[in-house]
Write a structure and sequence with these properties.
Blueprint lengths: L4 H9 L1 H17 L5 E2 L11 H12 L15 H15 L8 E4 L1 H13 L5 E5 L5 H8 L3 E5 L9 H7 L4 E7 L11 H18 L4 E5 L22 E6 L12 E5 L6 H14 L7 H8 L8 H18 L11 E2 L8 H10 L2 E2 L1 E2 L9 E4 L4 H19 L1
Parallel strand pairs: 1-10, 3-4, 3-5, 5-6, 6-7
Antiparallel strand pairs: 2-8, 7-8, 9-12, 11-12
Bound molecules: pyridoxal-5'-phosphate.
The site of pyridoxal-5'-phosphate has 13 residues, from helix 5.
């Protein structure tokens, strides 16, 4: 076979995703799609807000020259300035356009960052449960993933984080609100993680970046302000996108924000610029940069996701599923009522309900159900969840 051994292995390791997808299609073909309740995907349900459509209409009619050509790799300067202005307002940290690079979604942002900071064999610590694609991003950028764990409330376990950090650690990736748990790391967790990184830097004479992956930052269902990382660790980088908060996942638009207090920020910005260009992204899509620039304060209607969260979380916990209440994103991550989560997911498919096993997020024994679906799908899944729960507990 002509493809690389590495990619073949990675594809094999993630083949359960394809299997699930294929089984979903098969179930729909047999039973009709209205009878299959698919809670397995994280595809944002809500359409982009009116502000986005208005901006697009204006931009399409705009005949100003030089709007569709190459630009500085980091993006249009005026777009970076608008993004920085709102981020500075929200975070209370004086971010400027010089610290912003527009990217091809959060995935493009993370790959650009890892490419810029990793030498071959350098280590990146992930905190389980984590977004499974991270392991591939790290491997693609010649790094090695090390795994730390969370406590029973899905907050990072600092002892396990310290144990996972070694002399070759170059970064720790956190993700809050978290996919798959929906948990938001409080300020105290961010402070504890940062303190652990600083102790490790001192011990190993190294520099370790804290990378905060924040595509769900605006999908939050509590009143507690979102704890930003910049004031906690100088070497910190935000990777985010408008895939979820503006419902633009297919448009591939996001950004990187560098900590304005990082003493190495100019060198880092140059490296990110270079990596963004040479990974082949060149720059983030021009039209989308302009479209999101002036609507940085807009979001989809968060209340709709909050109601769906309540619908699914309340129904599952009423049946008896054990689950930490998610305060953000659009997932719940309950404990599987039998130890083998993949077996549970297979049994649930017989009830025509599709979810993802926790093993796919580095955390066996649990499963992820997405509530970014029509209410009809959530409501239709409840009998299946109940039948199987009763069956395995009888
Ligand atoms: C935690 C997390 N990070 C990154 C991404 C990728 O986001 P984007 O589509 O903006 O690249 C996702 C997408 O689901 C995600 O859940």
């Amino acid at each position: 076979m002509a493809i690389s051994r590495k990619v073949r292995e990675q594809m094999n390791n993630s083949s359960w995703i394809r299997r699930m997808f294929e089984q979903g299609i098969e179930l729909r073909n047999i039973h009709g799609s209205e009878n299959v309740f698919d809670l397995s995907l994280g595809n944002p349900l809500l359409e982009p807000p009116d502000e986005f459509r208005a901006e697009m209409a204006r931009l399409v009619a705009d005949e100003t020259p030089n709007t569709h050509r190459y630009m500085p790799n980091a993006g249009f300067p005026e777009v970076r300035a608008s993004v920085a202005e709102v981020l500075a307002e929200e975070s209370g940290v004086p971010v400027t356009g010089a610290e912003i690079l527009m990217t091809v979604g959060a995935a493009g942002a993370i790959n650009t960052i890892l490419r810029s900071i990793l030498d071959e064999g350098d280590e990146v610590v992930l905190i389980a449960p984590f977004f499974a694609e991270y392991t591939f991003y790290v491997a693609h950028q010649t790094g090695v993933s090390k795994i730390a764990t969370c406590d029973e409330n899905w907050l990072p376990d600092i002892e396990s984080l310290e144990a996972a950090i070694g002399p070759r650690t170059r970064a720790v990736i956190i993700n809050s609100p978290n996919n798959p748990t929906g948990v938001i790391y409080p300020e105290s967790s961010i402070a504890a993680i940062s303190a652990a990184l600083q102790r490790a830097e001192e011990e190993h004479g190294s520099e370790i970046y804290l990378i905060s992956d924040e595509p769900y930052r605006k999908l939050i269902y509590t009143d507690t302000p979102y704890p930003f990382i910049f004031e906690h660790h100088p070497r910190s980088i935000v990777a985010t996108s408008h895939s979820k908060d503006l419902g633009l996942a297919g448009e591939r638009i996001g950004y990187i924000a560098i900590n304005p207090g990082d003493p190495g920020k100019t060198e880092l910005a140059n490296a990110l610029n270079f990596s963004l260009r040479t990974l082949g992204f060149v720059n983030a899509p021009a039209l989308m940069q302009r479209a999101v620039a002036s609507i940085q304060r807009a979001t989809v209607d968060i209340n709709i996701y909050r109601k769906k969260r309540d619908l699914l979380y309340n129904a599952l916990t009423k049946i008896g599923y054990k689950c930490v209440q998610p305060d953000g994103a659009f997932y719940v991550f309950p404990k599987s009522p039998i130890p083998d989560d993949t077996e549970f997911v297979a049994q649930l498919q017989k009830e025509l309900v599709l979810v993802v096993p926790g093993v796919g997020f580095g955390t066996p024994g649990f499963f992820r159900a997405s509530y970014c679906v029509d209410d009809r799908v959530i409501e239709g899944s409840i009998d299946g969840f109940r039948n199987l729960f009763t069956q395995v507990n009888s």
